[in-house]
Structures are given as C-alpha cells and as structure tokens.
Design a protein that fits this description.
single chain, alpha/beta, four-stranded antiparallel β-sheet, binds pyridoxal-5'-phosphate, Aspartate Aminotransferase, domain 1, about 40% helix, 13 strands, seven-stranded mixed β-sheet
Length: about 400
C-alpha cells in the first residue's frame, strides 16, 4: 500500500498532549490542588433556551411519521437556515445570497476541506501565530506554506508581504490565539493584495460575534472588492455554544472565479455534496433558533458573560503590569510572559505556583514563544478565582 507521503511532513501535535501530561503529573503529586483550566478554547455556558426548545421540537418532528425527515436533499442547508444566515449578515449590513451559503458541521471541516478545491502545491500564506489546523491541513494537501509574521511590532496583525505571489491566504480575525482584530484599512490592504496576486482569502470569522467595537469589520464582505477574492468561514460554536452540537457555514460569493472563469461556489458545492451528506435537521433547527431575535439576545448574554471574564483577567494582568493583547473584541487574552520568560517556562510557573492551566504561545507558531494564551470561556467563579490567584 502507498500512503499519502504528505502526512510525514506533519509534526507530532504535542501541544495539548504535553499540557495534559504536565497537568496530570502535577495532580499526581498534589491530589488536593484545585486546578483552574483556562487553556483549551471550549465554551462552558450551556445551549440557550431558544435553541433547546427548537431542537426539542425538531426531535419530536423526527419521531412523527408525517414530519420525519431523512437526507437534506440539497445537502447545503435547509432553506429556513440559509434564510436565517442571510438575515444575520443583513443585520451586519452585508448582502449575502442564500445560494452563496453552504452549511457544514463546523468551521474546522471547512477550513480543512476548502484547500482541496485548489491545485496541490498551492502557495499558501499563513499567519504565525495562528490556529494550528491551517498549517496541518495544508501540509496534508502537499501545499507550500509561507508564514507571515505576527509580532509585537505589527500588533500580531501581519500586513501583506512585499511579493504578490500567493494562491491562498488565511486570515483569522478576531485571531486565535492573539485576540487581535484587523481594522477596515488593514483588511482592505489584504483584499487589494489578493486581487493583485489573483489569490483567494480564506477569512475565518469564527469569533466575529465577540466584536463590540462598531468600527471593526465582522465580515470580510464589508470590504470593497472582497466578493471577488474571499471566502468566509463561520461557526455556531462560539456564537451559540455549538462546539458539541456541530454547525458552521461558509459563504462563497458568486463573483469569485478562477483565472479560467470557473465558479468557486459551484466547485465548493460540488465538493460538499459529493463528500458530505448535510447537517442534521435537528441541528439546523437549533442553529436557526440561535439566529432568531430571542436566540441572538440569549446568545448575546453568554457572550457578554465571557466578555466579562476577559475583562476580569485583563484587569488582573494590568494591575500586575503584564502586557497583553486581545480580550476586548475576542475571547482570548494573549499575554507577554514577564521578565523575558519563555512560554513553557511561564506555563510551568502558572501551573505549579497558581494551579492555573494556560496554553503556551509557542504551540501556535514560532512567534508565539514568550507569550501565553488564556481563555475567557471558563466559568465566572473559576475566572474570578484565577484572577485572585494571579494577584496574590
Ligand atoms: N477557527 C478557529 C479560528 C478556531 O479557533 C476554531 C475552534 O476553536 C475553529 C475554527 C473550529 O470551529 P468549529 O467548532 O466550528 O469547527
């Protein structure tokens, strides 16, 4: 048998494994320690009532002979959800056609599968530091990765490089792990760059719901020209706590065509309907409810809860004189390890001295060393206690 040799280019994903090993070793020696986990970016608030009610109603429908549903024939999402998503965009001032939306089981799948519609060996620009799935999926596809450096000098918002040579560009804003958000001018620079290079931007908007500053774009399609060069990937995971339910969506504008005039929307739909059989009816009803007036208000309360967590952590760091990025329009706090310490060194300090589990920045790329990610997705009680422990 011949295996995909591209997999040998993958580095062992040691980050969360190493964190778990260190935490378990500490716990074995200190069984009484109360660990506070501000590491992994999973949510803690339960599904909101509007979603629970809608999903319950959908389960009942599935149990009735007259209302039972099998495969979603179109495979790209039921009309009711496509309408709700288009309405969500409209409320942000962005016009998106229901035929341009493809519903999926989450942003991670789309982030990983979209490169498959491009020729293998594509030149892909990926920010460093960033969500690690971008790198691994492109290695699996045999693509050429060019890192674009995010660092203190550009506020972890790397601008386009001088050379306009790229096929694909990943942009994550608000960024995981740094919490930084591109403003309109900065995103326009990227859009102009992509148009010049004939490249496609994959805009990961998984955390757009956390943007409160009205001047910051929540969609790449707020930027002129983006409909000719960008695909937007979004998720219900952080917007509505769907990390365990699984639902996301991708928008591919009709105007987005390859050099030889092929529609990327048609190609992506072809790919999805060939390799994916659609998201469950129950889930799609839940997602629709999340975008209803009541659902958005309830999800907004959860987001406000996490935002307050971010404020609590940020306030403690400010008191301690520790510099940080993010937190204001994102659920992540990206702190600079004090006294020039490395990520893992400071991770060990927080684990051993404060019993706080964090994520070392080095796990998100070489530019992440010397930084550490804390998440605002914990419970209030744990977040308050973590802040107290930091201040002690
Ligand atoms: N994109 C980014 C930037 C993320 O941080 C995550 C998850 O943490 C995802 C995508 C995955 O989202 P989903 O749960 O919809 O697969």
């Amino acid at each position: 048998m011949k295996l995909n040799q591209n997999y040998s280019a993958l580095k062992d994903s040691y980050l969360f494994k190493t964190i778990a090993q260190k935490v378990n070793a500490y716990k074995a020696e200190h069984p009484e320690a109360k660990m506070i986990r501000l590491g992994i970016g999973d949510v803690t608030r339960p599904l909101v009532p509007a979603v629970v009610e809608a999903m319950g109603g959908a389960v009942a429908e599935m149990g009735g002979a007259g209302t039972f549903r099998g495969y979603d024939d179109g495979g790209v999402g039921y009309d009711f959800l496509l309408d709700a998503i288009a309405g969500y965009y409209k409320a942000k001032g962005v016009a998106v056609g229901t035929d341009e939306i493809i519903v999926s089981d989450g942003a991670k799948s789309d982030v990983g599968n979209i490169p498959g519609i491009f020729a293998a060996g594509a030149k892909v620009l990926i920010p460093d530091p960033v969500y690690p799935a971008y790198v691994d999926t492109n290695l699996m596809d045999g693509n050429e990765i060019v890192y674009i450096d995010g660092n203190e000098s550009n506020g972890f918002l790397p601008p386009p490089p001088a050379s306009a040579k790229a096929d694909l560009i990943y942009i994550c804003s608000p960024n995981n792990p740094t919490g930084s958000v591109y403003n309109r001018e900065q995103l326009s620079e990227w859009v102009n760059y992509a148009l010049r290079a004939g490249a496609v931007i994959l805009f990961d908007a998984a955390y757009e719901a956390f943007i409160t500053d009205k001047s910051l774009p929540r969609s790449i399609f707020e930027i002129d020209g983006a409909r000719r060069c960008a695909i937007e990937i979004c998720s219900f995971s952080k917007l509505a706590g769907f990390t365990g339910v699984r639902c996301g969506f991708t928008v591919v504008p009709r105007e987005l065509v390859s050099g030889d005039g092929k529609s990327l929307l048609a190609l992506w739909k072809r790919r999805q309907t060939t390799k994916f059989n659609g998201v469950s009816y129950i889930t799609q009803r839940g997602a629709e409810a999340a975008l209803s007036e009541a659902g958005l208000a309830q999800c907004g309360e959860n987001i406000a809860y996490y935002r307050e967590n971010a404020r609590v952590i940020g306030a403690a760091l400010t008191k301690l004189g520790i510099e940080f990025y993010g937190g204001a329009n994102a659920p992540y706090i990206w702190l600079k390890c004090p006294d020039g310490r490395g990520s893992w060194e400071y991770f060990d300090y927080l684990l051993n001295e404060k019993n706080i589990v964090s994520t070392p920045g080095a796990g998100f790329g070489k530019n992440g060393d010397g930084f550490l990610r804390l998440t605002a997705f914990g419970t209030r009680e744990n977040t308050d206690e973590a802040a107290e422990r930091l201040l002690k």
